[in-house]
From TrEMBL:
GO terms for molecular function: ATP binding. It comes from Thauera sinica. Residues 2-235 form the ABC transporter domain. This is ABC transporter ATP-binding protein. InterPro entries: AAA+_ATPase, ABC_transporter-like_ATP-bd, ABC_transporter-like_CS, BCAA_Transport_ATP-bd_LivF, P-loop_NTPase. It holds the Pfam family ABC_tran.
Length: 235
């Protein structure tokens, strides 16, 4: 579904990504782990069109999308749940969710059915549907951000640090949702500070260090890699 080859990205004169290559197959959950400042969020932002690549290619469903604007990538089926949630605080929960479907042309009754699917996934959002998004807890805002992305009917979901700043019980709840989406066939690329949880879920994983991929392999294999465990898993 996604093929990245030789991708380099610059922030001014600083090379944030240096020749990154990776792939995500349809239906896979792929984890990207690494230390702070390794370039993980930059990679997701480049995939969604928020950063321009300096070199390399990005192919999605066989099509080169490196020059495609962010709205066109959303229409093509790429949804990005950014680090820090970025909900529209003054708007209601339901308005935030409906904004996720802004690029779709389906009739409103069809969108209403999919809204109900999001509420089934996150029942707390149904209870708070009329409240301003800014009044939600951090965990609830994370659920809202994921739900908003799902309203776009993505084929590829990019998740950036979904557990950041959450209490352990909420982290478990978010990962349960990620697991459910994976089992339903959603293709997911996840950047996650909780490397153990991400790699245990992942079909495949990549380790990013200083803008370069230094290790790659099946999720369970990276979990058992001594250097990865020592550097990122606290073992």
């Amino acid at each position: 579904m996604l093929e990245v080859e030789g991708l380099s990205v610059f922030h001014g004169s600083v090379r944030a990504l240096d020749g990154v290559s990776l792939e995500v197959r349809q239906g896979e959950l792929v984890a990207l782990v690494g230390s702070n400042g390794a370039g993980k969020s930059t990679l997701l932002r480049t995939l969604s069109g928020l950063h321009a690549p300096g070199a390399g290619s990005i192919r999605y469903m066989g099509r080169d999308i490196a020059a495609l604007r962010p709205p066109r990538r959303v229409e093509a089926g790429i949804a990005h749940v950014p680090e820090g949630r970025r909900v529209f605080a003054p708007l209601t929960v339901e308005d935030n969710l409906m904004l996720g479907a802004y690029s779709r042309k389906e009739k409103r009754d069809r969108l209403a059915q999919e809204l109900e699917q999001v509420y089934a996934l996150f029942p707390i959002l149904r209870d708070k549907r009329s409240l301003a998004a800014g009044t939600l807890s951090g965990g609830q805002q994370q659920m809202l951000a994921i739900g908003r992305a799902l309203m776009g009917k993505p084929r590829l979901l990019l998740l950036d640090e979904p557990s950041m700043g959450l209490a352990p019980l909420l982290i478990a709840e978010v990962f349960n949702v990620v697991r459910r989406l994976q089992k339903q066939g959603m293709t997911i690329l996840i950047v996650e500070q909780n490397a153990t949880a991400a790699l245990e879920l992942a079909d495949y994983g990549y380790v990013l260090e200083a803008g370069r991929v230094t290790r790659a392999g099946e999720g369970f294999a990276l979990c058992n890699d001594e250097e990865v465990r020592r550097a990122y898993l606290g073992a």
